[in-house]
Design brief:
heterodimer, A: mainly alpha, 6 helices, B: alpha+beta, four-stranded antiparallel sheet, 65% helix, 11% strand
Chain lengths: 151, 662
């Protein structure tokens, strides 16, 4: 009986939500805290579905949030903090992927598509205007037009 | 017995869909009227059978028949009646059944109201609709049968996912599906046009209202889902660029482009081939969205391995339809005559620009969503593509579009006057600048991008009203004449203005809440206060309670301003016993268009509790804007021109689906 109660208590405790950024994590210096929040929003909680560590309730996210704050208080720059986290957890933690060879298509796609579309558009427009000026009336049509205009 | 009847009806619906998919097309080839007519009859029959099947599943859920596996897995005898209903589509199998039900409903609408269509076109459209219905009916029967029975019926169900136990679930998926599946009709029309090798006036007149109706429903579905996530998930976010959200947003972007290109085609006979391609792409994106969400490839790459049949099955459907449609397009597009000439600076030109940006945006979101998957499959490297990427790329793409929006309606068809339009928008630009300056003054500065965003929103609203103002001749003629002129305008002019105003309103909401939101994370004991957004929030204490299938801890708060008590708010944490799952029920108070959002966190050892308070300025504008967009869609649909051409109206389409057939 006691074991069962303990089991229930254990389950209740284990699933009770641990919330994102708790008051005890917040840095005293508002400027440093703002930097920490900004960085947290760019780092992925690796055990969650598409959440940043800033939003996540998971323990791992909490650890990472504390790590980020620790590096910031130690005087690391934003880039240094990111570089440190990436060196420990890999590029997977970056919600904003770096611009490099393997993300060339990702970052390039919007620009290339927009340019290709614009070029296609201009070409099509050129063809169209070309047609407009190119289709002169045939002699027969001109004669009919004259006849209509005379009436 | 009743359950087996539902199962049987589903099998029969598959059979009638097969008839509908084959006979009308043969009829169209041989010009056999009787064969073509079978399509009409079969479409109606399929819809009735699907409705019967869906009704039976609903019956099983409402009566808590736990001998049905689907009911056992997703329901509970104690949940409120509304969640027994909405639980029907709150799971994979049931929602697929709803998807096909809506699909066959739309086919039936084409069958009933399509008498004014050319006979062969109607036959081909119904056949294409049937192919989609056949594929998904097979998918349900072979991999996701909701009518599976359990040998020993359990006494109690496993409960519906607590996050889904909300009114949001009752409305969100049906609206979303009406949108997704509504685009199937545009797709079928496009395929039918390619099969026939010609597009005539009837084609354009039919496709535009369908696009409008589907777009309006999809807008409603996405907006609804966003608000639901906002109040249910407990941290006040309203859009996460989550793959599942993107899956609905991509068809919306493509559909918005289609809406505008269909306009060009209807009015000016131009952009025919492009519109056909866009109609194919829009529904393809809907199918892709269904695949991404259903197969589970996105939330976890490994979900594919746990149930590969479903993912592979939809993938095959996807390849057959998208690949088939695009091949058909490649072969037949040259047969379609392009018509309608226009100069680059013209209404058509503006709409082409709209299409260029919207399709690029859709492609960007699509690539961003799929890139990590593709990269891992090809090179094994794992990367993430998250909100910072999407905010930046999408934002940059939207900027020129939003600047251009008020110009579009002011340009003439065929050959427009950009300078003239700019002059007429002078007042709107000035209004935007004034709004920006006032906010700069009130906020004592503020981030420059935010000021620009708000000014842009104000400019869009004023710019969208400019056309109405100019057309009414207000200022030049008396008020009554202006009013008469306005009432004489086509409804679609008002629809355009409303939708564009909505875009401006949504932008203002997004910018305001992103730039000026404040967050307060505090540990509170009863009697303590905290300030947020100019209001004072006092924590009065906690209360424990029990709901029908959960226990909860609720905090009571009193909101005051300048010592005067204004309102009280409850915020709770719930614990659902059957699934052992916690949820948050945020306490939200609305002040004008802004909200105070209170969420409970962890209990502290010394009797205090962590409280998160957000001040969300102008946040309601985000959804208010979408209401304007929907109103714009509805007003445009009621335009007389559309009624003359196509008697099927959106209002009629929406109602019956939401009521489960008996």
């Amino acid at each position: 009986m006691i074991r069962r109660v303990l089991a229930i208590v254990f389950i209740l405790l284990s699933v009770s939500p641990v919330f994102a950024v708790n008051p005890d994590e917040v840095l005293a210096d508002p400027a440093l805290e703002a930097r920490a929040r900004g960085l947290s929003a760019q780092l992925r909680c690796m055990v969650c579905q598409n959440q940043s560590i800033d939003d996540s309730n998971a323990e791992l996210a909490k650890d990472l949030r504390l790590l980020v704050r620790e590096r910031i208080t130690n005087g690391d720059s934003d880039d240094a903090v990111i570089a440190y986290v990436v060196s420990r957890y890999g590029e997977f933690v970056l919600l904003n992927p770096r611009f490099e060879t393997k993300t060339l298509i990702l970052w390039g796609a919007p620009v290339i598509l927009l340019l290709a579309g614009a070029v296609a558009m201009l070409l099509a427009a050129g063809r169209r205007t070309g047609k407009v000026t190119g289709t002169a009336l045939s002699a027969d049509e001109q004669a009919r037009l004259d006849a209509v205009l005379k009436d | 017995m009743i359950i087996e009847l539902g199962h049987y009806a589903l099998v029969l619906a598959l059979a009638t869909s097969l008839l509908q998919g084959v006979l009308p097309i043969i009829g169209a080839l041989r010009n056999d009227h009787a064969l073509m007519e079978i399509g009409t009859v079969a479409a109606k029959a399929t819809f009735l059978l699907m409705a019967l099947s869906f009704g039976v599943l609903t019956y099983a859920h409402v009566t808590s028949d736990f001998s049905v596996q689907n009911v056992w897995e997703n329901s509970h005898s104690q949940i409120p009646l509304i969640y027994k209903f909405s639980g029907v589509w709150g799971n994979h199998e049931g929602s697929m059944l709803l998807w096909v039900l809506i699909l066959t409903f739309f086919s039936a609408l084409v069958a009933v109201f399509g008498d004014n269509l050319p006979e062969t076109l109607k036959a081909n459209v119904l056949a294409v609709q049937a192919w989609i219905a056949v594929s998904f009916s097979l998918f349900i029967l072979l991999t996701s049968n909701p009518f599976n029975r359990l040998l020993n019926a359990p006494g109690e169900g496993q409960d519906l996912n607590p996050v889904l136990q909300d009114v949001g679930l009752a409305i969100h998926p049906p609206l979303l599906y009406l949108g997704y599946v509504g685009f199937s009709v545009c797709f079928s029309f496009a395929i039918a046009a390619l099969i026939e090798g010609r597009i005539d006036a009837a084609w354009a007149r039919w496709v535009r209202p369908w696009t409008l109706a589907a777009w309006t429903c999809l807008t409603a579905g996405i907006s609804m889902g966003s608000y639901w996530a906002y109040y249910e998930l407990g941290w006040g976010g309203w859009w996460f660029w989550d793959p599942v959200e993107n899956a609905s947003f991509i068809p919306w972007l493509a559909g918005t482009a289609l809406l505008h290109s269909a306009l060009v085609m209807e009015k000016r006979e131009a952009l025919k081939i492009w519109t056909v391609l866009l109609a194919i792409m829009t529904f393809s994106m809907s199918l892709l969205g269904t695949f991404l969400v259903r197969s589970g490839v996105l939330t976890s790459v490994h979900a594919f391995a746990t149930d590969p049949t479903r993912g592979v099955f939809i993938l095959i459907i996807l390849i057959l339809f998208i690949g088939g449609a695009l091949s058909l397009f490649a072969f037949r597009a040259a047969h379609l005559k392009a018509g309608g000439l226009f100069a680059p600076i013209s209404r058509e030109g503006a709409l082409v620009l709209n299409n260029l940006i919207l399709t690029t945006a859709a492609a960007t979101v699509l690539i961003g969503t799929l890139y990590p998957l593709a990269l891992e499959a090809v090179t094994g490297a794992k990367i993430s593509v998250g909100p910072p990427f999407f905010n930046m790329t999408f934002g940059l793409l939207m900027l020129p579009l939003m600047l251009a929006v008020p110009f579009g309606p002011l340009l003439a068809w065929k050959r427009g006057d950009l300078l003239g339009a700019g002059q007429r928008l002078f007042a709107a630009v000035a209004f935007g600048l004034v709004v920006g300056s006032i906010i700069y003054y009130v906020q004592n500065g503020g981030p420059i991008m935010a000021l620009f965003g708000l000014a842009l929103g104000a400019y869009m609203i004023a710019g969208s009203l400019t056309e109405l103002y100019l057309r009414s001749g207000l200022g030049k003629v008396t008020g009554s004449v202006a009013l008469r002129r306005l009432s004489g305008l086509p409804r679609s002019v008002f629809g355009t203005a409303l939708a564009h105003i909505g875009l401006g309103v949504t932008l203002i909401g997004i910018v305001a809440v992103t730039a000026f939101e404040t967050e307060h994370i505090v540990e509170m004991k009863p009697g303590m206060t905290t300030d947020a957004g100019g209001y004072t929030l006092r924590f009065d204490g906690l209360r424990n309670g029990n709901g029908p299938n959960y226990s909860e801890e609720s905090g009571h708060f009193t909101i005051s301003q300048g010592g005067i008590e204004l309102a009280e708010v409850w915020s709770s944490k719930r614990f659902y016993t059957a699934r052992q799952m916690p949820t948050t029920e945020a306490g939200i108070r609305t002040f004008g268009l802004s909200q105070l959002y209170v969420s409970l966190g962890d209990d502290m050892k010394d009797g205090g509790i962590v409280v998160r308070v957000w001040w969300k300025p102008m946040i309601l504008c985000i959804w208010l804007g979408t209401v304007f967009m929907m109103a714009g869609g509805a007003v445009s649909l009621s335009d007389r021109r559309l009624r003359v051409g196509a008697p099927a109206r959106a209002k009629k389409q929406k109602k019956p689906v939401l009521e489960p057939a008996q």
